[in-house]
Amino acid sequence: MAPAATPTTTTLRCALSRVASASASASASASASASASSSSAAKTKRKATDTAPSAAPNKGSSEPSIHSDVNADANGTAAAAPTPAKKPRKKLVLDSDSPSAPKSPDTTADPSLPNNTQMPASLSYDRPSASGSVRITSWNITSLKSSKSKGMMRYIQAEDANIVVLSETKVNDQKGYAGLAILSKIKPLKAVYGLPGLNHHDTKGRIVTLKFENSFLVGTYAVNAGEGLKTMATKQAWNAAFALYLAELDAQKPVIWCGDLNIVQDQRDLAAASKKWNKSPGYTAIKCDAHCELLQGTATPTSQPLVDVWRQKHPDAIGHYTFYGWRGFCRSKGIGWHLDSFILSERIASKALECKI
């Protein structure tokens, strides 16, 4: 049988010992619920987490809860947060003798890597051996509407994740609205939409937080700096507000942050890195330094260290990308970006059982 249509990006999985506990639910929190549970995907990015539980999910229901921030206007407006004094921090150094532009040779994708040029005829996923682990997957789907003909439901059904994070759903007709939805078989204690410290119009449906008994799950489709870096000021405002928000959550309980981060960490995470430095929206000194501060725990006075669990488990990997442009046969040529990830509070990073693209 011929394979189905090829999605335009790849996916990532990560497995953790479960820190999100709860019972199953079938409630819907947004108008996107019907299409979210029945559509397939145009563009898949990273899949993520299996977690080992503090409490097993209720098996009485297989229907997911759907938590979607598609109308930022419905969330109200938060007051601007004051800018705190920063702790001393390390600058992101991309090369041993330069604090800015990388000078190492450009890295290219390993031709043996599965670049997903065709949808496989059959799908199967291994489960971690840890009993009661929870799997969370994250996909950038470009839009729910366009995903219907791209075969995403085959992936979702084959993997049977406990939680699915869908970014860039684009179910709002207003120009520029991104949309973020989370489908969960584990009932959260609370769902929060938007980002404190920013006008909710500015977040454009880019963030949803689920509060569980022992953790927070934060799904994002992060703000980009735009073509020609024209919206860098908006990106910097997002970075500042998001750093404060993560620090506030992490002070209460561990955080699992996943989705489309719209940032590459260093030159290992994109093809032809030196040509794109300070020119491409996801790869600038300002953005890389801000991301480095988040990971180091120096972004705010109360920030704690965070861990990119994919990079922790694959420290030397090169050419493993989660996004490929549609121009110029980028996927088949291995010209991609590693824009999506799972970032965990350092104190629970050891619970990660696996993290795969």
Automatic annotation (TrEMBL):
Its cofactor is Mg(2+); Mn(2+). The record marks D340 as: Important for catalytic activity. The record marks N262 as: Transition state stabilizer. Pfam families: Exo_endo_phos (PF03372). Probably binds two magnesium or manganese ions per subunit. Belongs to the DNA repair enzymes AP/ExoA family. NCBIfam families: xth (TIGR00633). This is DNA-(apurinic or apyrimidinic site) endonuclease. It comes from Ustilago trichophora.
